[in-house]
Predict the structure.
Amino acid sequence: MNNPASSTNTAISKPGPPLWLLAELTYRCPLHCAFCYNPIGFDQVDQELDTQGWIKTLREARELGSVQVGFSGGEPMLRPDLEELVAEARSLGYYTNLLTSGVGLTAERAKALKEAGLDHVQLSFQDSTKELNDFLSNTKTFDLKNKVAAIIKDNNWPMVLNCVIHRMNIDYVDKIIELALDLGAETLELANTQFYSWAKLNRDSLLPSREQIEKAEAVTGRYREKYGDKISIIFVVPDYYEHRPKKCMNGWGNVFLTITPDGTALPCHTARMLPGLEFPNVKEHSVSDVWYESEGFNRYRGKGWMKEPCRSCPEQDDDLGGCRCQAYMLTGDPNAADPVCDKSEHRSVVDEAVAKAQDNIAAEAHPLVFRDPKESKRLSAGKDGANVLLPS
Amino acid sequence: MNIDTNTVVSISPGLRLQFEKAQDTWVLLYPEGMVKLNQSASEIMQRCDGERKLSDVVKLLEKDFEQTGLEPDVLSFVEHALEQKWVELRNE
Ligand code: SF4
Ligand code: SF4
């Protein structure tokens, strides 16, 4: 706050509690998704919080008022103490969500998780193979999802299927919806790829064309009409095709608290890329200090940080200026308006990406980079470990 | 919608009703989300225990709050809760 005019009238009221705690238990993962949201430099993070570290975090966050906890990753099933953490979370009063690719969720472990009090499983339907075009016909993936879906049903968990949508699978949303119906999912999230980390590297190959999106929306609409009572289908258009940005994380440091595998606390899982910001670690700080006192969490809370065009914008409460990471990645300035906004002077970068996406030849010319430890090492060579997110 | 008050109401499987100290309010938790309930909604939901008939839920509320004629309010809330899939009805 170096502008006296803004500091006199921005009395920041105390933020509410971190209602949503995302526990990224590990960056390790058997899959290699080209749209993976883990940092490019994930391979440099090897000090995972131990069981006691997670238990301390769960307790302190619950004390502040956290009520939903998501165990994610990487692949959280790779943590042998998952059952213990779920049991602790449940006894503290959390609603416990497991976000998994299904790899490792055997009937045995499912039973143990049920006994631990796990409330819900979100099964992500992502392609583990490098043959993205075989996405739906890939029998290995298919058999696995079938088996895991049956396990989820057997344990009476509500089932949310999550499928990351991109240029290469968006033409098959009908098949994806059919599959979700067959598997008995109550909710299907057709989540368009968000262009951070690995997905940003692969953006030109992953961003669908306008025509593809319109077609997919129409198909989704038809299925909603027909099967609306059986399944609720969520379809979100990629923000590149919007004229206003999303209200990222429902407001910076407002409800979401992410704890990364090594214990670093973030307001969203990509925030570590932002320059000049330090994020505290729960190994050294209490969750209360992290949430209420740290510079990392306070910097972009509310609207005090805004500059033009956001500062005097009548719509600022609707989107709070959009996503800080997207602003930084695409404009180089973390205080800029999210360039998805058509009031942004940088909207042209988004328009260029969108224009490319309408052209098949340009879009398909790029080889995909798959997330794996080797690529992680290669891409972050000489850079500072987990902080590497390669802004373009 | 015509709701039969002889049916039993219960909270939908997978959902949980609980009091949240930090927010000083009753909430209904569901996969990856939550609704804060206002006072009357939470009083009704707390009595939908999966055993009581709807008519008994009404009677109990009337007794506990020393009021009469609560049925229309309770029914309209239950209708809303059914639409939201917060509760389920079961014939005994
Ligand atoms: S997006 Fe894919 S590779 Fe990345 S953590 Fe999830 S399942 Fe693993
Ligand atoms: S100018 Fe800023 S606050 Fe206004 S709509 Fe655009 S991003 Fe949102």
User: Anything to note?
Assistant: The two ends of chain A are 28 Å apart (CA to CA). DSSP finds 16 helices and nine strands in chain A. Residues A 244-245, 309-310, 313, 315-316, 319, 321-322, 337-338, 341, 343 surround iron/sulfur cluster (ligand 2) (CB under 6 Å). Chain A touches chain B through 18 residues (CB under 8 Å).
